[in-house]
Amino acid sequence: MQEKATEEQIDAVIEVMEEAGVSVHRTTGAMQTILAGVGPTANIDLTKFEVLPGVLNVLRISSPYKLAGRAFRPGGSIIEFANGVKVGGEQVAVMAGPCSIENREQMFQTAARVKAIGASFLRGGAFKPRSSPYAFQGMGIPGLQMMYEAARAHGLLTVSEVMEISQIEEMLPYVDLFQVGARNMQNFNLLRELGQARKPVLLKRGISATLEELLLSAEYIMAGGNYDVILCERGIRTYETATRNTMDISAIPVIHKLSHLPIAADPSHGTGRRDMVAPMARAAVAAGADAILVEVHPNADKAASDAAQTLYLEQFDELMSQLRLIATAVGRTM
Amino acid sequence: MQEKATEEQIDAVIEVMEEAGVSVHRTTGAMQTILAGVGPTANIDLTKFEVLPGVLNVLRISSPYKLAGRAFRPGGSIIEFANGVKVGGEQVAVMAGPCSIENREQMFQTAARVKAIGASFLRGGAFKPRSSPYAFQGMGIPGLQMMYEAARAHGLLTVSEVMEISQIEEMLPYVDLFQVGARNMQNFNLLRELGQARKPVLLKRGISATLEELLLSAEYIMAGGNYDVILCERGIRTYETATRNTMDISAIPVIHKLSHLPIAADPSHGTGRRDMVAPMARAAVAAGADAILVEVHPNADKAASDAAQTLYLEQFDELMSQLRLIATAVGRTM
Amino acid sequence: MQEKATEEQIDAVIEVMEEAGVSVHRTTGAMQTILAGVGPTANIDLTKFEVLPGVLNVLRISSPYKLAGRAFRPGGSIIEFANGVKVGGEQVAVMAGPCSIENREQMFQTAARVKAIGASFLRGGAFKPRSSPYAFQGMGIPGLQMMYEAARAHGLLTVSEVMEISQIEEMLPYVDLFQVGARNMQNFNLLRELGQARKPVLLKRGISATLEELLLSAEYIMAGGNYDVILCERGIRTYETATRNTMDISAIPVIHKLSHLPIAADPSHGTGRRDMVAPMARAAVAAGADAILVEVHPNADKAASDAAQTLYLEQFDELMSQLRLIATAVGRTM
Amino acid sequence: MQEKATEEQIDAVIEVMEEAGVSVHRTTGAMQTILAGVGPTANIDLTKFEVLPGVLNVLRISSPYKLAGRAFRPGGSIIEFANGVKVGGEQVAVMAGPCSIENREQMFQTAARVKAIGASFLRGGAFKPRSSPYAFQGMGIPGLQMMYEAARAHGLLTVSEVMEISQIEEMLPYVDLFQVGARNMQNFNLLRELGQARKPVLLKRGISATLEELLLSAEYIMAGGNYDVILCERGIRTYETATRNTMDISAIPVIHKLSHLPIAADPSHGTGRRDMVAPMARAAVAAGADAILVEVHPNADKAASDAAQTLYLEQFDELMSQLRLIATAVGRTM
Fold first, then answer.
1. Which of A242, B29, C116, C126 is the most buried (most CB within 10 A)?
2. Which residues have CB under 8 Å from D116's CB, separation 6+?
3. pLDDT in tens, B158-205
4. CB of C270 within 8 Å of any CB in chain B?
5. Cβ neighbours, 10 Å, residue C142
């Protein structure tokens, strides 16, 4: 409460707090009175109190997410896949592949190489939402099927982006991990449906989402009973224009502190430039990332989308050698 | 090109530019060579050139949007509604109503009052996507119907948010203006469908969208043949924490310079606090806004959502008196 | 405290709090314990507590500034100058002039015109810190003397930027209001010296300063006994690139709520473009600004610095007519 | 130029460009005319052109800095110190010590330990500019002398922050590397004087500075003849509140691309939390940093300032073991 708040104002605030379902503890100092509300506060909108007369400041002490919070599973979560691959354990997982699925040959060629180099997931986009209405829009389900066959032929898992509720069902046979893109991080209807799906979800951080918002979106999925969520840092929007986004490497240790969920890093989208992918992938593993997503293409210069941020396969190979050494430094394998 | 770029590198870049379909003009200075590409560049991804050897910098000179650009209609667009109300003309339009539609009485009471005070649109949300999975989610189509009846009973138009493609059809009988929320500004599938709808669209700026991205999203709708788009500034995310968002008032004159489309302002979401709504509404009209959205509620403290930013009806009345004077100062009516 | 915090951890935190000089009030809920520290907390560094074992979150409830806070003078401050001009009262003050002082004729010509149009302060820079080491650096004290004579010849006050402690003494005879630029907002040595000066200070907000930091800088000056501080919004750095800075108009009502100090607005630096100055000046007055700074020049195109954001005198004249109407709408004069 | 620009407008722009001292090359496309200015453009203010009639957009192609640019020394710069220590070469340099110099014992104890653990520089602040006017302000020159003696007793170099021109001379005998703090990155008078000093400078990035601005500040120092500049990333201000600043790890590879100057990283100020220092130090070395600054204190909990971000000496020891492994992964030693 403000220093000059009257007893009437204090009583009025206490009443509104009690109506909202919390029990109120009052601390009266020499200068100021503090009212602490204890109880189920997760769905209370705090600004409701902020505009009451005499109120100085309203602060939330407990986090608004529960299932996604570290306290829920202090030891951390490990997501296990059918073929025994785990994300969140000792081994840092690698997900590699082209931005867009283009054709059968591309996917089989990529699958063979990324498997040999050390990836455990094949990635590829089937639905490409482009910011310009005049660009390539993706191959859809037939593309996913190609990716799935190429992956299975080489013992890989698949990960691909789901953009709409209607796609969940049709993608289900072909993906082992549903990716939710940055633009859909707060598409709550989609998140709720994925909470019903019985497949893990890779949830990318929105381009201007706080880590609290990212965890609240994970909570949406988990509230439906699907606890297999992997978070993913992929760059945030800042004032800096020298890079497309600013990859927030510190999100990795912060998420490990706030949540039990594994956290991946996507240096390809995080930087947008091929020559920045390797340094940022190394930084992510050094900071403790549980998985890395990398865009690679057998013919990177001719990739149908994101060509500039796509690694040549030889670059990916060299990067993996560096990452293995770094993983050792942080007590992991790769 | 970089100062040390070789002739081979320059030739290689020229080749890639020509492949991309532009004609190349070369300027050779004492220090540097500049390559200008002229032609249909809107769908070319510039980073493709940035990573070529010898390239220093790649800049887009013409804007990536055409239909939304000022040059398309230098005199500016006026959106006209069935009852003769216009947005973008001399009169500044006012859209008022509660955040959420709650019940019949609330909507009729609100409609009567906001009409008397000077609004021409009744606003109200039927689908409420909340960032917490545990909160009120809206009344849906029956709510919209109530709003429509209340509006028509008082000669008002209706505006409400559409969140998914499947809602367009069922909302069509009840809304005069489809609102696209900030979180859906880059939901390109939704935008494309709205381009087919024959009803005007109010397109809100995403919380971290640049004005160029806002115009590109408008372009998506317009590319489908629906030119009746009203843009809306509603606050952007910055480092400042004293306000929920930073309302970017300068977006108003900038949009008028870059585009022919009308621009509205939403000071309720832009600030999140009742006591900031009036100053920012005044600022928006003073800066040249073509329309104002204001959250009002006959019983603002008990509003089911956004209570803290909702004006009491008497506050709205007083605000309108101030706005009328300010409109005069900028050669408008209200 | 975290949900799983032990009694030992809680006791350890209480001990550190007591060492820091606050009395501790404990609230024990079903899930969590809250420790409230009451006492002189302004100079306590909160992160000290954040890293203690078992601590979930540390929040400051009372503001870290006292003299600058609204509670110190709930009625608001009015800064009065020798010739009776007031800033913070009913009349909105206008400060106009060129970015740089260039010569005697320029200043006398400008003074005559801005006085006739309605300004009460003549502004002009004598020391020009440029971000490029290769640009014009200002006329220094002889320039200030010219400005002072021109101002007094037309009954105007003067305002000019002080950049170093050593300049305070030599500027003193020629300025009525010391301006502290955005880059020096946290030059605490300079602020402390200005706290000893017996002349008002116009303190500009740093390009990435929060409003709390701005008020803490004002506190620095006030702590020395100089209470005549006028704050100034001049644009903050955001991700948007369509404008040089994003002018945070909402800072005006927020400062009025948090502090008793007057708040000015500088739309010239806030936008960097001549065609944006008028809309943003109007927005600032509509939002409640106590003063407006505008760059004008008798020959704007040839101004030695900031030419692009400098108004022609006719534009300034027209702007003042609009501002007078808007001032009326908010119960002010101009 | 805009699509509808007239020949008169184009000619007027060409004239202004020629007046500014550049030669103009004109490209006339089907839709648009492009004017390229070639010549000494570093000190031309571009907004001057932006506001001319008919101009669509003005872009700078060559960088506004020359001495700091990669092209000036494509092989990269190595800064060599008296005792043979190098920054920018194969070995990653380590600078460690307390935030503030507190007393003789603290400095000798720290020097002995950090030397044993592997540092080559002892750091410590003598002048502490605090954002609150009520906090500890540093020991000044006597403190520096203590640090210098402690460093030399253990074969270490010293680095300390200079805050004002007047301090340069008196600090000179005691520091091997002048540190310019984030708040002074654009204190151009200070930078110019340091350009005259014959000691290396560690230039920290301002909290909201772009990398271009950082390089332009380095240019200020270099323009005076002092080419021994080490840049330093220490966190930027973003919308995220979970960390004090967002450490921009991508600045490291970007600086290596744009400039020949070495780049250091300061994870202590970059994160503000002890538990985040190690992950971010590892990330910085993995991304290619040339030096690391770490705050350590023999009694970290009782440090006079920045206690929360100061490592215990055992933590520093463990961190160095990890960093040595990571350095190997990127072909460096440590």
1. C126
2. none
3. 999 999 888 999 999 999 999 999 999 999 889 999 999 989 999 999
4. yes
5. 10
